Amino acid sequence: MAQDFTAAMKDMMGAFPVDTSALTDAFKTHASLSEKLSAVALSAADQSSEISAKWTKETLTKLSGVTKAQAEPADYAKAMTDFASASAEASAEYMAAFAEVAKKVQMETVDLVLAAGKDMSDETTAAVKKATADATAATKKATSK
């Protein structure tokens, strides 16, 4: 006598339903994290481009002093020295501004990742509890037949 394995498999799979809501929640959490991380990256790129533009504009303004005709050859050396000194000072200032942007990105990223990790941990715990309850109920139902 041949057993109907198809029917047996259907009964067995039906007794242990799969809840996809945990996967949906995980996807939503991941999408939300990606959106927030993208916002941090875009904000940093915007701030960095503003710093770069300001630095370039300031450098070009200072460079105009070097290109002016001077009365004495020594004045050219002085103009070049003044430009180099001002450029070094500006470099330190703008590099510090870039460092602040990077520091802010790092702090925001860590905060977001930690918050997402907590959310994912909470979701996983809830999904495991629900799966355990569903499996227990399905087992009781299957063994009571």
Keywords:
145 residues, mainly alpha, single chain
What would you say this structure looks like, in words?
This protein has 145 residues and is mainly alpha-helical. 89% of the residues lie in helices and 0% in strands. It has helices spanning 5-15, 21-67, 73-143. The longest helix is centred in the last third of the chain and has 71 residues, at 73-143.
Please state the overall shape, judged from the principal axes of the Cα atoms.
rod-shaped
What integer value in Å does the Rg equal?
Answer: 32 Å
Strand content: under 5%
Helix fraction, binned, reads over 70%
How does the major sheet shape up? none
The count of helical stretches stands at 3
Spans of at least 5 consecutive residues whose pLDDT stays below 50 are: none
Helix/strand order, N-terminal first: HHH
Q: How many β-strands, per DSSP?
A: 0
Mean pLDDT comes to: 84
Q: Could you say which structural class the secondary elements and strand pairing correspond to?
A: mainly alpha
Distance between the termini: 23 Å
